[in-house]
Amino acid sequence: MAVKAPKRRSERLSRRKATLINKAYELAEFCDVDVALIIRNRQTGRYFTYNSVDLASWPPSKEQIASHCPYH
């Protein structure tokens, strides 16, 4: 499913990123949950983020997540 043309790949990334962010927003709004989303473009190293809440304590640190995760 790899896209070879750089422009087409960039367009696909942009569309899929927008869809993913919209789904994260909907999840937060409709399910009353906090959502943090991080997307990293492997080719450029650029990061895109979405946070459903604007708090200094959100998103939690990796250590906080690991302490609450039963599979760590």
UniProtKB/TrEMBL annotation:
Keyword field: DNA-binding, Nucleus, Transcription, Transcription regulation
GO biological process: positive regulation of transcription by RNA polymerase II
GO CC terms in record: nucleus
PROSITE patterns in the record: MADS_BOX_2
Gene Ontology terms for molecular function: DNA binding; protein dimerization activity
Residue span, MADS-box domain: 1-39
Location(s) in or outside the cell: Nucleus
Chief place where the protein resides: nucleus
Keyword Iron tagged: no
Gene3D superfamilies per the UniProt record, alphabetical: Transcription factor, MADS-box
Record-linked Pfam families: SRF-TF
Name of the molecule in the record: MADS-box domain-containing protein
Organism: Cadophora malorum
